[in-house]
Model the fold of this input.
Amino acid sequence: MVKSDMKRILVIGAVGQIGSELTMALRERYGNDNVVACGRKTKPSEKLLNSGPFEFIDVTKRETVEKVVKEYDIDTIYNMAAILSAVGEDKPLLCWDVNVNGVFNILEIARTYSMKRVFVPSSIAVFGPETPRVNTPQETVLKPRTMYGITKVAGELLGDYYFRKFGVDVRGVRYPGIISSETPPGGGTTDYAVEIFYEAIKNKRYTCFVKEDTVLPMMYMPDCIKATIDLMEADVSKLRHHCDFNVASMSFSAGELVEEIKKHIPGFVCEYKPDFRQAIADSWPQSIDDGVARREWGWKPSYDLKSMVKDMIDKLSKRYEEGRL
Ligand code: AKB
Done:
């Protein structure tokens, strides 16, 4: 177990794509009983439920979070609850409520209870069509076209405000599309890069909702967990930024992903039928300059397209053969 100044951790959104794996990684690192997992409605997996405390809360209802914070004497929060870009376009008010009012509740709780640290993730969705799309700089135009992007800009600014005004140690990275094999994502524009693996293994066919030449920045889950924990453990005196770190790992087109999958599943066929998510993808960067994160807290990813695809296919094929996919 790693010694840390963060003693009692709360993971909000622990049943989601990132939250589920982050909770397990934090439990392994800091001890099962020191990491309280929270979901809103979705039934948690047996693994999550049996490995440590679990509670139901709603981030938009401050009192539900506060109750758990007091009960478990929480001093660190990872707020992974969010409505992602595609669902956000369908339900913009809900998106604002969860992503902005929810974050606001967490920051207020952090201030009131003198929390040691808070993680509020941002996204490449903070960028928009006016932003340089290749090697997008850390400091650049933030004029997103989606409600999700707007809420993420607000979250970054709120977090920085709480740091400067109240001294709350809030941190966050701009996640690219996250690819993972444990819990599928829900409601994002980059979801095709995960769905494609499940369909390739189960049916050898996939209909992709963005065009073949659509390039987006992506990251494999082990690197996502590493970025999250490394930033939270970084020495605050070295940080010039707080809630808006660009982090990059790999960028590829949907077509390049298909070609890499075909090396493992030769009969795989992908069709392209772009829908409303194409416009969202086209408003986002193709690649990210993460030099600031590398300099301020030593960020360095481990996976590239080739190693990520191999690992995803190995893991999902094994689950498929065992009848668990
Ligand atoms: C989404 O597609 O909405 C998310 C993101 C890039 O933040 N995966």
